[in-house]
Amino acid sequence: VLLTETHAGVRTLTMNRPDKLNAANDALLLSLTEAMTQADADVSVRVIVLTGSGRGFCAGQDLGDVSGRNMTFTEHLNHTYNPLIRAIRGCGKPVISAVNGVAAGAGASLALAGDVRLWARSAALIEIFSNIALIPDSGSTWFLPRLVGYHRAFELMALADKVRSDEALRLGLCEHVFPDETFQQEVQAYAEALAARPANALKLTKQALNAAMTSTLDAALDLEAELQQVAGDHWEHQEGVTAFKEKRAPDFRRG
Ligand code: LHQ
After folding, report:
1. Fewer beta carbons within 10 angstroms: which end of the chain, N or C?
2. Looking at residue 254, what is its pLDDT?
3. Is the CB of 17 under 6 A from ligand 1?
4. Where are the domains of the chain?
């Protein structure tokens, strides 16, 4: 259900149920969470890419896999989706959502959960939950209004409109759109460029931004002052300053 590959410090996790547009079953969700935690702990990994095989990114919950289950909706979310979203947001390394195709339902939440969102031209996002009279979950109610505001989020959720890549770029649901034909190479090149950046500083940046999403300016200033000390005490900072003075590119991959 999940393919794992590592190249040049970039760990790519590929959801692999292409016949169902990578609709998520428990096995996929639990192994994704496990893989995310492992990648976070693995010193050889600097960037994590989450993508899908075939023409879909992730079509959300596998609707063939829910009937007859002996868990409530609440239990199911707390057992599978929520730990995954927490693992992505809590991961100390940048996570790239590489949205190669349609992202629907909880798949849309996964497309929004990454630190960087790269889309293929033919990708699309659908907050499709209301088609089956459910509410957006797996973090969609938190991510989407922060990106597009309450009202557009409500409309996208209520009407389950399909957001195509040009509009996604305009709305701020993704950072870059690449041609389908070269998508994988573009994602790998982007990820490798990110992998060359200072890992400790990026980890602290992610921590500070995550906290700031729900904090006051006063609290953000306090946390910045605290974490800047951690960054400043790290060898990466010395390397950056030395490289600047020596008029050379810093090497943040050593150490
Ligand atoms: C699928 C699915 C799918 C199974 C495509 N399941 N097979 C959390 C907790 C607990 C319960 C419930 O939910 C949640 C969170 C959620 O994620 S709720 C939202 C669940 N997802 C959906 O409702 C999306 C259902 N899929 C669709 O509406 C369409 O497939 C989309 C719009 C995503 C793509 O449409 P098309 O490009 O036209 O592809 P398709 O519909 O032909 O799908 C291709 C195949 O994939 C097809 O199988 P088949 O054997 O006919 O070729 C679909 O049945 C299968 N598939 N999504 N979620």
Report:
1. C
2. 80
3. no
4. 2-195, 199-245
Same CATH fold, 199-245 and 2-195? no
Amino acid at 212: A
Rounded (10°) angle between helices 217-232 and 199-212: 170
Assigned fold of 2-195:
2-enoyl-CoA Hydratase; Chain A, domain 1 (3.90.226)
Q: Which residues of the chain have pLDDT under 70?
A: 67-68, 255
The reply to whether ligand 1 has any atom less than 6 angstroms from the CB of 64 is yes
CA 123/CA 157 separation, integer angstroms: 18
Handedness of CA 178, 168, 100, 195 (dihedral sign): positive
* Location of structure tokens 């195709």: 101
In this structure, CATH architecture of domain 199-245: Orthogonal Bundle (1.10)
Mutate to test the pocket of ligand 1, among 20, 82, 127 (most ligand atoms within 8 A of CB): 20
